[in-house]
Amino acid sequence: MLNEFSLISRYFSRHEKSPDAAILGVGDDCALLAPRPGRVLAISTDMLVEDRHFFAGADARALGHKTLAVNLSDLAAMGAAARAFTLALALPSIDEAWLEAFSDGLYALADRSGCELIGGDTTKGPLTLCVTVFGDVEATRALRRDAAAPGDDIWISGTLGDARLALGGLREEWPLTPEDLATARRAMDWPEPRLALGAALAGVAHAALDISDGLAGDVLHILERSNAGARIDLDALPRSAILANQPAMIQRQCTVAGGDDYELCFTAPVTARDAVLAAGASCRVPVTRVGTITAFDTRADEARIVWTDGDGKPVPLALRGFDHFDD
Amino acid sequence: MLNEFSLISRYFSRHEKSPDAAILGVGDDCALLAPRPGRVLAISTDMLVEDRHFFAGADARALGHKTLAVNLSDLAAMGAAARAFTLALALPSIDEAWLEAFSDGLYALADRSGCELIGGDTTKGPLTLCVTVFGDVEATRALRRDAAAPGDDIWISGTLGDARLALGGLREEWPLTPEDLATARRAMDWPEPRLALGAALAGVAHAALDISDGLAGDVLHILERSNAGARIDLDALPRSAILANQPAMIQRQCTVAGGDDYELCFTAPVTARDAVLAAGASCRVPVTRVGTITAFDTRADEARIVWTDGDGKPVPLALRGFDHFDD
Description:
Two copies of one chain form a homodimer. Chain A has two domains: about 5-140, CATH 3.30.1330.10; about 145-310, PurM-like C-terminal domain (Phosphoribosyl-aminoimidazole Synthetase, Chain A, domain 2, Alpha-Beta Complex). In chain A, helix 2 packs parallel to helix 3, helix 4 packs across helix 9 (about 250-255) and helix 6 packs antiparallel against helix 10. Chain A has ten helices and eleven strands. In chain A, strand 3, helix 3 and strand 4 form a beta-alpha-beta unit. The first copy, chain A, is α+β, with helices and mostly antiparallel strands. Strand 1 (about 30-35) of chain A pairs antiparallel with strand 2 of chain B, so a sheet runs across the interface.
């Protein structure tokens, strides 16, 4: 029977060190970490709870991947390079096959992202995963939510809505062929944090965030912090071939209010269009222009976001983002 | 009804900034934080789960205090100064009175420790609290677990065992008067992280850790990482007046294998005795010498820790520390 300490040492200690490794890693009261010269640390934390963020019995390897991926996505949205992470987990029991698969999925992404596990905590309890992730970035080049300016283009990386399409298929909100469900499910279970794109956009783009709770809700965070509005073309929102084959209402719901996308939504001046396209091409991530940041008067009685169709005609939209306290 | 975002903004956003504040705090994808010049960041994470680390229905104000205190205690054990923390919490529902009391307890300690909330995550789920805490320290003065040397004195701050005494009283493992239970319970519910003492010991002491799972188990972490053994005088272990009035077996169990103490156990060369006593006096925290670090040969068939009574006579001891996966 493994105890808490042998569990950490068997599944969550690595002995290889990268040149950028932390000064002191797993096993002391604290890890010691410094940003590289000229940079500051970027820090984010996310908690994933069974039955809320993932299904009971979810594939452990995919869960290991996703637990880290959703955190790395926050670094990407800041333009930061991944450095390290801590992992706290509550487990109902010690299941060695589960731990082996979970740590495999976690480390596969950690290793190729240059992200070292530097500390953690394990305890008994309802399955809960909490990662805090550390990157570094030049403070003046960080992609902040408050930096959007009227006239900026609004861009989206990759495609939106496949994770929500899969969720709806699993919940039988809509029918999907087994092949389409399998494809969409890969987007839900194996999101790819856009670290290279985020780093390439640092110093080029103005504001950025990652779309985790749905575009409609998340883009508001940029607009509110930047005191701006937006005009967004619903027909321009990038979607996969399988989503583009669904009925229009499903397409709209999945792209606008889906959640679990982990794509970047960012703004950049019109003069930076070529640079943005070059950043996307260099990282092999499609980037799509979907709208414009507008001036917004908080005293005026108007919507912060004007949604339009491809002809520029306004479309009323009642969809909104995901709130973790709605049932 | 509060949603996730108004909850964060109502209970977990502060607008005052200290001179040492983070470059960017709550509300972006990441916080931005840098250690002060010449220092590195010290990082630790702890997860607290209802019914495991605290009773269901525990006083929310005390829980807010303790959630941060156990993390700050890890900074103290490293000799680091507190800078910032992130908080991820899963809540079964939004209970405004609970949140108000919890955040009051949390901020009271955060404010007097100079520790700023820089990010977090809230979700629905079984009550679970995960804090990651950030301090800074000069790398060469950090109190590492691997730095104990044979001949070092072993010291303990404060007193040990009151939290375990309270737990035993609540579980009716032993009888306690209502007054003694109330006193012991304060130690359990309101542990005081030894930040000032830890900082005063940086550069003076060799190795240190904080005692969270019981002295017997925790001191082994120092000994294993330092390739050393220890000789510890059971009768010298500091204890409160109420614990000193209990039967000898209860005193021993509580001081040696109690847990939840959050006192520092540290080693220092004999030549540093005056400096250690001065550090304790300057912080108004008692420090007690309880033993000696010894050379240890892993090939020899001997115990790593020799426990003795006050006359130096070995005492056999089967007690051990707390393992979170034992029931």
